[in-house]
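Entry type: protein chain
Record version: 2
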Amino acid sequence: RGALPVCSDKGELMGIITERDIARNCAMNDSCANIKIGDAMSEEVAIGSLEDSVDYAISIMKQRRIRHLPIVHNKKVVGMISMRDLLLMHMI
C-alpha cells in the first residue's frame, strides 16, 4: 500500500497520489489508461517537517484521516512517513 508525492521540476510538493486515488478514478472511468496523475492526485496535502515530533505527526494524520504524510524541508519533499511506519515504531 502506498502513496507518492507529486513534485514540480524543482522538487516542490504539488500533491500526493495514493493507491486509493487511483482505484477511485479507475472505478469512475472506463479505463485507467487515460487517467492523468494531476487529475487523480490530492492537492490539499498536510505536511510534516523534520522538526516535528512523532506524536505531532500522528495527531495530524488522525485529524486529517490520512495514512501518509510528506516531510518537507526548504519547500522540498525529503521523505514520507506512513501510519504503518509510526505504528511499527511504537510496537518496537
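Comment: Helices lie at 19-28, 37-40, 54-64, 83-91.
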